Amino acid sequence: MRIFFLFLLITNCSFVNGQYYYSDLMGLQQTQKNYEILRKNRIKVISGTGTAAEGVVKIHTLTEVPTDGKRIVKSISENSRTKELVNQLYEMGRLKKIIINNPGVETTIEYQYNEKGLLSSLASTVKDSSSGSINTETHHWEYNNSGIPKKMIKKTTGMDSLSVEFLTDSICLVLEESWFKKNKKIETFYYYYLPDNRLSDIVRFNSTAQKLLPDFVFEYDQKGQLNKMIQVGNNGRNITHWDYSYFSNGLRETEIARDRNKNLIISTQYQFEKH
Length: 275
Prior knowledge:
Elements: H1 2-11, H2 20-40, E1 43-52, E2 58-64, E3 71-78, E4 81-91, E5 94-102, E6 105-113, E7 119-128, E8 133-143, E9 149-156, E10 162-168, E11 174-181, E12 184-193, E13 199-206, E14 211-220, E15 226-233, E16 238-246, E17 252-258, E18 264-274
Antiparallel strand pairs: 1-2, 1-18, 2-3, 3-4, 4-5, 5-6, 6-7, 7-8, 8-9, 9-10, 10-11, 11-12, 12-13, 13-14, 14-15, 15-16, 16-17, 17-18
């Protein structure tokens, strides 16, 4: 169902293909921050229930956090039927592997880090039991002496490699992300920031509209927490508005998705238990 997979896209946004600085590095940074909030607050279980506008589709998420902090298990079900099971594995407090099981498909994502603790490589393997296919994608990251990303090489089974290069400003914020295949530039994303250096927009040239349009727009509350996000897809034809609220400990309390006309798609409420 469209609502269900839209929900998965956002809750696992760090694995969305595209805008690699945002999805790989910023996504990993946010995942690590969420992990630290869970550990600091000794969270045992997070449960969430999402209900669609018509009230007939219910998505339930259950996140379990053992006391040793080495594994986080998240299950996602739609109308009591499990649709996805996610295992996040940690070593020394750092994410090392994610195993995502959907009906007939298993995705494994493995992370390697350099001596400075920066992501050096990401390897994603997708196994489809129905077709017997196995596809692998790797991202190899390079940094300058200041730890700022300068290049990423993406290799995918059966495809030409993709080279991604980054332009930064004087305070090392990434401003542009350019994609190259066979030494030809094929795409450029532009990153914009608020005066406090928080990301505000990710923009690229839209061939249909013949102008720059955002893929993402972000807004934050007074505590610096993301409280609004606009996601644009399908060449600007699909627009989703997201609103978030948080408990005082930083855990997410609610998330609400609306379509381009601000009509409700799904509203999710979270609760948590401590050890």
